[in-house]
Amino acid sequence: MFGSRVEEALRAAGHEVTRERDGADAVVVDLTADGVDLAELGAEDKPTVGFYPHVDVETRRRALAAGFDVVVPRSRMARETAQVVEKALAA
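Above: the chain sequence. Below: its structure as tokens.
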């Protein structure tokens, strides 16, 4: 459900959204979703953005160690979706 809100916010900001990593300009990931491989995603050759529950500092630490470009709490992602992704794209 939160993923749909992220997608809508990105579309509203003029971004094309796909659920496929191939051909994407950036990868946005719920770091607590089942099956997320932080090492694989952190090694992407495109900007990576991860979001997590603000109380889960271990997940944040692991994502940064894996090489994610931007890692923010879910609350910030909800408020600043487009800005967070645009920051990653600009880096």
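The first strand starts at residue 27 and ends at 30.
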